[in-house]
Every structure is written in C-alpha cells, then in structure tokens.
Amino acid sequence: MISGCKRNTRHIIVAVGLGNVEFFPSNFQHLPAELISHSSGYTSYESFAGKRVVVLGGGQSGWEAAALLHQAGANVELAFHGSGYEPPLENINERQRDIADKFFFLPEKEKDYLRKELLKATVTEFLLPLVEGKVRLRPYSDIICAKHVQETGKFEVVFRNEERVEVDHLFAATGYCPSVDKIMFLKSILPNILKEENGFPVVNFESSVEGLYFVGPLSSHHHGPTYTQIAGVWHTSRTIISSLLKQEAAITSTREN
C-alpha cells in the first residue's frame, strides 16, 4: 500500500507527461535561464523581434521554433547534427500501432533498433518553405561551447568549425529525458522503485512497487516509443485495467475466505 499525506490507496497511476524533463546538453547547463530556453516553453515569440537567436535541433520542434521566430521578426540560425531536412518515416502511425503491444516482449537488440528508427529526428514537409531561404541553416553544427558575455548581457556560442557567434538567446530543441528521479511527489519511495541507469522505471506498466504504475513517456523505455504517442493509449489502458481488476478480485476473494 502506498501512503499519501491524507489518504491511503492501493493503486497510483503516474501519468505526468513531459513536464520538468526537458533535456539541455551539458555544455549549456551553466548558462543563466534568461539566455537559454527549451523550445517547449513558448507559444509566442514576439518578445524576440529584432533579437539574434540560435535554435539547436534538427527535428520537428527545432524547425517549428525557427519558423515561428522568423515570423516574429527575429534573426534566426538553425543548427543541427545532420545534413538537413529528413522526412518522416512512411506509414509511421501504422508502424507505431503495429508494435504497441509487441515491443515489451522483443529481444533487446530489436528494441534498440526500433528506438533508433522511431525516435529519429524528422521534419514534416510543410515547414520547408517557412524555414529554407529565411533562416540560416547550419548543418553538421554542434555547439561545443557557450559563454556568457557579461559586458553585453549576451553570450557567445562556438561551433565545431570554430566559428564564433554572439547571440541574444539560445533555444534548445533537444528533446526530453524522462526520469523517475525527477518526480518529486514520489521522493519518499524512490529507493523502492527499481529503475534503469537512464532513470526509467522498470515496468510492465506496474513498477517494482506494488500498485504503482507508470504510463506515457516513463513507460516508453520498456514498451517502446509508441508510448510517447497517442498510439500507445489503448494498449496501456487495456493492460492496466486488466491488472487492476485482477488485483481487486484477489483482494475480494481473500476477504471472503
């Protein structure tokens, strides 16, 4: 049984999504918050009109941020690891649905392959005319260093080719890094939750703590990338409902006996 502050319950389903798990490369973590943002943190970019900004990330969120920043009047550069635009996989939605209830039982080698295939950074075609020719593209451009310039209040980024650029703001469109360690309301029972080195709980939806379930991104390491998408909802629901019904039936039977 899991105890809360005011109530006890036999079951908790943790469905916290991607809040508080934004990933920032380690060489940016020293920068003050006013100079660097995760791309997920904005719905409007009007405050960046006239500013020089760099967006780091070659996936959908990076291209979207670059397009919206340009439309808001910012001077934008988009830097990314690869060579350029990569279209989404054909029939990816069907592929996700097809593996939703199979991934957990696959060999680890096949799981790794599917993670790489389905988590590849891709960009939908409608973004191309909103970015190409309007935003400076920097392919093969890791940022190896970022330094706050106290005198100007800006910061200098150094690209792998050693080019240096002084900018007003950096947007990290660098994805997410879910970890059970970041869920503060579970702090008291964290030592009892079996987890991988990367912070994902070991789950078949139910964790090593009886009655504690994880769904969504926190279940995606063991159940696959489908579980960061709507495609994973149906299998999640069926599995958890079945588990809860079996546990309740067992409790009822024990009481009757």
Give the arrangement of secondary structure elements.
Blueprint (H helix, E strand, L loop, with lengths): L1 E2 L4 E2 L2 E3 L21 E3 L13 E5 L3 H12 L3 E5 L12 H8 L8 H11 L9 H4 L4 E3 L4 E7 L4 E6 L4 E4 L1 E4 L39 E3 L5 H4 L9 H24 L1
Parallel strand pairs: 3-12, 4-11, 5-6, 5-11, 6-7
Antiparallel strand pairs: 1-2, 8-9, 9-10
CATH architecture of the largest domain: 3-Layer(bba) Sandwich
* CATH fold call of the largest domain: FAD/NAD(P)-binding domain
Q: How many structural domains does the protein architecture include? A: 2
Q: Span between N and C termini?
A: 21 Å
Q: Structural class, please?
A: alpha/beta
* Strand tally: 12
CATH superfamily of the largest domain: FAD/NAD(P)-binding domain
Taking Cα atoms only, what radius of gyration do you get, to the nearest Å?
22 Å
Average pLDDT for all residues: 87
CATH class of the largest domain: Alpha Beta
Shape: elongated
Q: What does the main sheet amount to?
A: 5 strands, parallel
Poorly predicted parts: none
Main features:
12 strands, 257 residues, 6 helices, alpha/beta, FAD/NAD(P)-binding domain, 25% helix
